[in-house]
Amino acid sequence: MGRKFDYLGDVEAFVAVVEHGSFTAGAVALSTTASVLSRAVARLETRLGRQLLQRTTRRLGLTDAGRRYLEQARSAFSQFEDAGREVLGQEGELAGRVRLSVPTTYGHYRLPPLLARFAQLYPQVQVALNITNRNVDLVAEGFDLAIRLGLLPDSGLVARKLEDAPLLLVASPQYVKRMGAPQTVEDLHHHVCLPFMMPSTGRLAPWIFRDGGCDRDWVPGSRFEISDDVLGVVSLAEQGVGICQSYEFIVRDRIQHGRLVEVLPQLRGRSRPFSVVYAPHRHQSAAARALIDLLSNPGG
């Protein structure tokens, strides 16, 4: 009787190619060559009778069959890892690899102390951190979880809210001295505003206020439009270019050290949520579950 799962090496090759983005990078991760991985994926496709990867000169993409197979394969490998840890018993250290995607705001200002604690608690877990303001496709791009900003559409993902982050308006002391401090929302029309262009829509993100007890959304107009990295608005404001709206956790230290000052504080009261999201039908590894728990309950 032949071996039933003698093709698992080909499956591992396929997963490595997708997770690392190319045959070359996958080969480095598995200490082999790109040609070996190419033949392994071709064997797997022949065995399944389905094309898994769309190969072009510029990039690799997953077919629908490849996306479904990747999801199941990663789930199976996670279960293998969990089974090994269970055999080791409760005294065995948690190990494995977690792929996490986060926006720049969270990646630079909220996540570092949490990951530092996670690294102390689970020194055998490898964390592959992707910092981007693009909403990655968790399944197609092989991410275990992601942190997302704002109200989430009904995408089929499981979401656990991490926090509601308060927003405020800030400018540099030099700007306020030069241009004066606005007293009302209407005054902002006569100031240099620093709006951010949302990557998901290509539109300027509205500034959100609580004005006289009422919620108000206001789209700033300006000769400046910042895209891709929302932290750019804070850097420009700090240099005296204009006024921006940002999260309190980003500008708190700059205000304390006098590099920024709050303007229109009476318009405070609005916030945006941050959530950790993951696919509900994917088997999460013990390492991924531990990271989700720590993110959701940092004081626990």
Summarize it.
α1 packs across α3.
Keywords:
300 residues; alpha/beta; 7-stranded mixed β-sheet; two-stranded antiparallel sheet; elongated
Structural overview:
With 300 residues, the protein is an alpha/beta fold. Helix content is 37%, strand content 23%. Strands 3, 4, 5, 6, 11, 12 and 13 form a seven-stranded mixed β-sheet that branches. Strands 1-2 form a two-stranded antiparallel sheet. Helix 1 (8-20) crosses helix 2, helix 1 packs across helix 3 and helix 2 (23-29) crosses helix 3.
- The global form is elongated
In total, how many beta strands? 13
What low-confidence regions span 5 or more consecutive residues with pLDDT below 50? none
Largest sheet: 7 strands, mixed
The secondary-structure class comes to alpha/beta
Helix content, binned percent = 25-40%
Strands, helices and their partners?
Blueprint: H1 8-20, H2 23-29, H3 34-48, E1 53-55, E2 60-62, H4 64-88, E3 95-102, H5 104-109, H6 111-121, E4 124-131, E5 145-149, E6 158-171, H7 173-179, E7 196-197, E8 207-211, E9 214-218, E10 226-227, H8 231-238, E11 244-247, H9 248-256, E12 261-263, E13 271-278, H10 286-296
Parallel strand pairs: 3-4, 3-5, 7-10
Antiparallel strand pairs: 1-2, 5-13, 6-11, 6-12, 6-13, 8-9
Helix pairs in contact: 1-2, 1-3, 2-3
